[in-house]
Design brief:
The chain is elongated. It starts with 16 loop residues before the first helix and ends with a helix. The protein has a single domain, classed as Four Helix Bundle (Hemerythrin (Met), subunit A). It is 80% helix and 0% strand. It is mainly alpha-helical. Helix 2 runs antiparallel to helix 3, helix 2 runs antiparallel to helix 5 and helix 3 packs antiparallel against helix 4.
Length: 126
């Protein structure tokens, strides 16, 4: 009897809403919104760098950039993005090309969804 593994492309987005709320309380609405905008711009660039590093087979750069994504994701409470970046790091370190492709695709999906959430927060705050 064979087992069928299901690939979920609709993975729920995990956010640390307390972390986000704390950021707004600590920094104030205007500064928190500005910090989120800057962070999202940086994250977009880092995702592109990871994609480029994977394409050019630069494992060290890929691991470095994925680590930066993870750290920024953690700081912003974007847990799914952080977890996806960790998956890319592990896949690259294992040298498994299929795993790298799968985890990179997951990172791209989580990044897009996280960026949309951050954009929505910015619009709500003014």
């Amino acid at each position: 009897m064979s087992r069928v593994c299901e690939l979920r492309l609709d993975e729920p987005l995990q956010l640390d809403s307390e972390r986000l709320a704390d950021m707004f309380v600590e920094l104030g609405e205007a500064q928190a919104t500005h910090l989120i905008a800057l962070s999202i711009d940086r994250l977009e660039g880092l995702v592109e760098e990871v994609e480029r590093a994977v394409t050019q087979m630069r494992a060290g750069d890929c691991v470095e950039h994925a680590g930066e994504i993870r750290a920024l994701g953690d700081a912003l409470g974007l847990l799914s993005l952080s977890n996806a970046a960790s998956g890319v790091t592990l896949a690259v370190q294992s040298s498994d090309e299929v795993a790298v492709a799968a985890t990179l695709a997951r990172l791209q999906r989580m990044a897009l969804r996280s960026f949309r959430i951050a954009e929505e927060l910015q619009h709500r705050s003014g």
